[in-house]
Design a protein that fits this description.
Strand order of the largest sheet: 4-3-5
Distance between the termini: 62 Å
Number of strands: 5
Structural class: mainly alpha
Strand content: 5-15%
Radius of gyration: 24 Å
Shape: globular
Number of helices: 12
Length: 335
């Protein structure tokens, strides 16, 4: 749906699209139901896995250390990140119109990429935390204080929302005169810019610069941190110390690889000529698969986290059992 405005001279035409159509994954109704079922399960597992880590960090005092507090915030961020796109995608699987309003589309674009940017900053801070713990263990308690940790968390949460304001505003100000069909399951900036009537090279350049600076900057920071960590671990004389250091870093490196591997391919060069199908697969990987895998990666390779999760599940089972007993006693009294 679009409306057209024309200036007095009639030379310049400004077009405004009031809604977009998210094509998603075009297929038969049966396949749409299958997709809905698969992604519903993936979304539920993602919420449960990341929520379990958040609860473990919140309730277990043994995990009230900077490393686990950062991990808890990262898991909460994953919940926010996946929730910006998956519910709308699930609704579209059951919808025939698959429409999204102009404002909702750009709101999704803003929050999706802001949370994604926040993830990059959290990964940087987590790498810095591991660097301090392994390379500067004696100075670690003095440097990574509660105040510093809190400040870094606030910085990581807020940076993405500040940084992505400019690209979102610029892309939203482009002229959209129809067609309004986005061959994607999310309001991605690349197809949005392709739909624009006016090819604004400056906007494309600013968007590419933002992505390149963010991706390369944060990736190099993480890379340098782990080069120093690996050099410090190699110099350790204790084999047990080496194994413990590598164990604590392995899960984080796996998440970094998943996150940056797909996003660098997709967004550093938006005009690189990826096929539409490949764009969807890459976006699906970092927006759905990665948040689903992260709880497994962090919990399976971390003894403290596994022990804490076991305690939570045991407590949950005891509470459920106690609740059932109370209900049965109450029912017996009524009878």
């Amino acid at each position: 749906m679009s409306s057209r405005l024309m200036n007095v001279s009639g030379i310049e035409t400004i077009n405004f699209v009031s809604s977009f159509i998210l094509m998603g994954f075009p297929s038969s109704p049966e396949m749409q139901l299958l997709y809905f079922s698969l992604f519903s399960v993936a979304y539920t597992l993602t919420l449960m896995g990341n929520a379990a880590i958040v609860c473990a960090v919140w309730w277990d005092r043994h995990l009230h250390t900077p490393m686990y507090i950062l991990l808890g915030n990262f898991s909460l961020l994953e919940i926010c990140y996946v929730t910006t796109t998956v519910p709308k995608m699930l609704a579209n699987f059951l919808s025939t119109s698959k429409s999204i309003s102009f404002m909702s589309c750009f709101a999704q674009f803003y929050f999706f990429f802001s949370f994604g940017c926040d993830e990059g900053f959290f990964l940087c801070i987590m790498a810095f935390d591991r660097y301090l713990a392994i390379c500067r263990p004696l100075h670690y308690p003095r440097i990574m204080t509660k105040q510093v940790c809190t400040g870094l968390i606030i910085f990581a949460w807020s940076c993405g929302f500040v940084i992505f304001l400019t690209p979102v505003i610029l892309i939203s100000q482009l002229s959209y005169c129809g067609p309004n069909i986005i061959n994607h399951f999310v309001c991605d900036p690349v197809p949005l810019m392709m739909l624009s009537c006016s090819e604004d090279i400056i906007t494309q350049l600013i968007y590419s610069t933002f992505n390149s600076v963010f991706m390369i900057g944060t990736f190099l920071f993480i890379l340098c941190s782990y080069v120093l960590v690996i050099l410090a671990v190699i110099r350790m004389s204790s084999e047990a110390g080496k194994q413990k250091a590598f164990s604590t870093c392995a899960s984080h490196l796996a998440v970094v690889t998943l996150f940056y591997g797909s996003i660098v391919v997709m967004y550093v060069s938006p005009g690189s000529g990826h096929t539409v199908k490949m764009q969807k697969i890459i976006t699906l990987f970092y927006s759905v698969i990665t948040p689903l895998c992260n709880p497994l990666i962090y919990s399976l390779r971390n003894k403290e986290m596994k022990d804490s999760l076991r305690k939570i599940f045991r407590t949950g089972k005891v509470l459920i059992k106690y609740k059932k007993e109370i209900i049965s006693i109450y029912q017996m009294e009524l009878n």
